[in-house]
Specification:
- By secondary structure, the protein is α/β, with parallel strands linked by helices.
Length: 602
């Protein structure tokens, strides 16, 4: 779609149509809504001023890039948004040549742009990276690491700061707008460069006064300018004419430039306009009322949060942290109840992890509530700041396993492998809601070392009370159904799938048993040695590489046990988006595929 030939009126009409298309699809399929509606006008401006055929278009997180997808030949294909086999909810180079870089985690965009700018300079090409980043993403340290170098190298990069929560200074009426345009003009930029040179020859007292005069013209952007980036703004992020004017100026400066744009989340859909966290990512809903089409049921996040809340009410030493996901991790209610003991530190997973280590050192009982995919971002801190000196920080790992429509960047499949190799770490997992409550209780009382327990997005696959819930005992597993023939070795949410496989095999007249490992570090070697079955099938929702079957194979070899092991963990690939059932069927690790594979080998 060539927006460069359109008038401002036509561009405004296009923005309206794009918002209607996004609202229609997201209301039926689910997806990110408020952030992407708010970014429509900025993205149209990007496409008008820059050349998407050659300029790197870089979207931070990229959940706000739906308009970009619609402008780059995916209008009809957008119907398949986040569906299995359909287009991704994030930018994805394998999906389109117009998606410069994959993104699903926050605060990587300026580093990507700087790397691209270095390459462009070395190749002696006339291209310029353009970044769209939200103000929330500016809370992560990686952003400042990148800006620090960018301000030093002075490479041409245009960074559009999409400020939708007024976390950076509010513009003040007509005077602010006038100064914004004045600062953007070439004659102001030339004046400022000359002014800085003159300052070098002035006495210190005069220099101080003159510097304050300069700051008057740059009060909103002084922080960025001190880092070596030019600043334009704030501008109206929904005024396409103004956006185009300012982006043209930023492009012509051939320097690193921040264009600060004020926008409204959910723009164009009244129910979502403003700061409403639940409109960030949504399941299908009724456009007229805004009500979800499917009422939410009991989920693991809520069970965890309720269990921790009860403990926190009775023990003032219980504290907790989350990194920008208070609702997603269930910490929102604890933050309301105990604001002095539970914190949201923003998109700063490294800081979140490290900050809890001294809390443990000082005798508190800290919980880090975090998604599996985001704990990866604080991995060195888990090793260096928590485990090295053996501080008993508790990691509550939400969204373990396949998470669905968010796909490759969010699948929580690596935590078993990347945590299992760390000394001093204890790992365990509940199998249902009842044992999740017991897992929280065990973590609370466990003060010997760091520990982590994982649980899925939404509900467990195993219903409560199929097996009696028992307290967790360090390093002890549980034989749920015994067998001398076949043993299904399961972990966490994998117990539910193992139980369904057990029933499918029973229908075919095949006897099998189920072991719930409960712990993978330390794991129950005595229990495993006692098993009479010589065929073990491992069922767990984690990556096979570094996973549980590898752990058991090492054990069997060390013990010289006559046992065959086969893994039905996830293969060594980045797992695509889709529902859990669709993806597991595709990977051939759903209950029917597992049962059929076992039957073939009988």
């Amino acid at each position: 779609m060539d927006v460069k030939k359109m008038s401002v009126e036509e561009l405004n009409e296009l923005a309206k149509k794009i918002r209607e298309r996004i609202l229609d699809i997201v209301s039926r399929k689910g997806g990110h809504l408020s952030s992407t509606l708010g970014a429509v006008d900025l993205i149209i401006g990007m496409h008008y001023v820059f050349d998407v055929e050659k300029d790197p278009f870089i979207f931070d997180v990229s959940h706000q890039a739906y308009a970009h997808k619609l402008l780059t030949g995916r209008w009809e294909e957008f119907e398949s948004l986040r569906q299995f086999g359909g287009i991704s909810g994030y930018t994805k180079p394998r999906e389109s040549r117009y998606d410069y870089f994959s993104a699903g985690h926050s605060s990587t965009s300026i580093s990507v742009a700087l790397g691209a700018a270095k390459a462009i300079k070395l190749k002696k090409e006339e291209r310029i990276p353009v970044v769209l980043i939200g103000d929330g993403a500016m809370g992560a340290g990686m952003v400042y690491e990148a800006m620090n170098e960018l301000g030093y190298l002075k490479l041409p990069v245009v960074i559009i700061l999409n400020d939708n929560e007024m976390s950076i200074g509010r513009p003040i009426g007509a005077v602010s707008k006038y100064l914004t345009k004045l600062k953007a003009k070439k004659h102001y930029q030339n004046f400022k460069d000359k002014f800085k040179k003159i300052l070098n020859f002035m006495p210190e007292d005069v220099k101080f006064t003159a510097k304050k005069m300069e700051e008057f013209f740059s009060v909103n952007g002084i922080f960025f300018e001190e880092m070596g980036l030019e600043y334009i703004g704030p501008i109206d992020g929904h005024n396409i004419e103004e956006i185009i004017e300012m982006l043209k100026i930023a492009k012509e400066l051939k320097k690193p430039v921040i264009v600060h744009a004020k926008t409204v989340k959910g723009k164009g859909y009244k129910q979502a306009e403003g700061y409403y966290e639940h409109w960030h990512g949504v399941s299908p809903f009724d456009i007229a009322t805004g009500e979800p089409l499917k009422k939410s049921s009991l989920n693991a996040t809520k069970v965890f949060a309720d269990a921790l809340l009860e403990i926190a009410k009775n023990d003032e030493k219980v504290v907790g942290v989350t990194a920008a996901m208070p609702s997603g991790t269930g910490m929102k209610e604890l933050m309301k109840e105990f604001p002095e003991r539970f914190w949201d530190v923003g998109i700063a997973e490294q800081h979140a992890v490290t900050s809890m280590a001294p809390m443990a050192k000082e005798g508190f009982i800290p919980f880090v509530a975090i998604y599996s995919t985001f704990l990866q971002r604080g991995y060195d801190q888990v090793i260096h700041d928590v485990c090295l000196d053996n501080y008993p920080v508790r990691f509550a790992i939400d969204r373990a396993g396949i998470v669905g429509a968010d796909g490759e960047t969010h699948q929580g499949v690596f935590d078993v492998g990347y945590l299992r190799i760390i000394p001093n770490m204890t790992l365990f997992a509940p199998r249902d809601f009842n044992t999740l409550r017991k897992a929280v209780e065990f973590a609370y009382k466990f003060n010997s070392s760091p520990c982590a327990f994982r649980y899925p997005r939404g509900a467990f696959e195993l219903e409560d009370n199929i097996f009696e819930p028992k307290d967790f005992e360090l390093g002890k597993g549980e034989i749920l159904i015994d067998s001398e023939n076949i043993m299904l070795i399961a972990y966490g949410n994998g117990v539910g799938k193992a139980y369904r496989v057990y029933k499918l095999l029973k229908e075919k007249g095949i006897e099998s048993g189920i072991v719930d490992l409960k712990f993978v570090k330390p794991f129950d070697k005595e229990l495993l040695r006692s098993l009479k079955a010589k065929k073990w099938y491992v069922i767990s929702d984690n990556a096979k590489k570094g996973g549980i079957a590898e752990m058991l194979s090492e054990f069997v070899n060390e013990q010289n046990l006559d046992v065959e092991i086969e893994s039905f963990e996830y293969p060594d690939i980045f797992i695509p988006h889709g529902t859990v059932k669709e993806v597991e069927k595709y990977l051939e690790v759903d209950e029917n595929s597992i049962a059929n594979e076992i039957l073939i080998k009988m």
